[in-house]
Amino acid sequence: MVELTTAFEAQAGRIGATVHRAARADVLPLATRILLEARCRTVAVADGVPQRPALIQGLGEAGLSVAATAGLWPTRRADAGISVAMLGVAETGSVLLASTADDRRVELCVDVHLVWLEAATLVPTLDGAVAVLRRVSGRPPAYATLVSGPSRSADIERQLTIGVHGPRALHILLMAASE
Predict the structure, then answer these.
(1) Which residues lie closer than 8 Å to 58 by C-beta, 6 or more apart?
(2) Which of 25, 99, 165, 176 is an S-S bond match for 104, by CB 3.0 to 4.6 Å?
(3) What pLDDT digit, counting tens, does each position of 1-35 carry?
(4) Residue 50, preceding bond cis, omega within 30 degrees?
(5) Are 43 and 65 in contact (CB under 8 A)?
(6) What separation in angstroms does the CA of 68 have from each of 106, 138, 165?
(7) How open is the CA angle 118-124-126, to the nearest 5 degrees?
(8) Cα–Cα distance between 56 and 9 in angstroms, integer?
C-alpha cells in the first residue's frame, strides 16, 4: 500500500494536483484550512462526502458559505467544491469520480476542487479501474470521470490555460487506510 500511495502522490504532483495525506480525523480541519488559504468564500459539497453535515457545520463556523449545487452553472460558479472519489490510479495520479448531475456541478463549476480519496481504494493501473467504470456506466444517469489534475485547455498556438473548463486547482485529500 505504501508503494501505491507514493506512486500516486508522485504522479498526481506531476500533473498539477496537490496531494495532502491525512488521517480521517484530520480531514475536516485540513479541508477548511485549504479553502481559507485559497481565499474561498463559497463552497459546494457533494452529497456523497463522508461526514457531510459535520463538514457543512465546520465550514459555516469558519465563515465559509455553502452553495447549493443546483444553483451552480458554468456562469454561476462557487469558489470551491468538495467531492469524493471512488478510487485513485497510481500510474496516472488520476481519481475516478462517479456523480449525479448535481454532484457533477461540484466538480466542474468551481475554481478549487477538493477530492476525498481513501488510500485503500488506490489501484496500480488504469486496468484496475475498468471494472469500476463498467459498473458505474451500467447505472445511468450517473456520470463517471477520470480527473487528472486541474482543468487544462490550449489554443491553436499551444498556449496552455488552466481552469477554463473546470477547476484551476485540484487538491486530493488522501486518507490513510489505517484510520
Answers:
(1) 28, 29, 32
(2) 99
(3) 679 999 999 999 998 899 999 998 899 999 999 99
(4) no
(5) yes
(6) 9, 28, 20
(7) 100
(8) 27
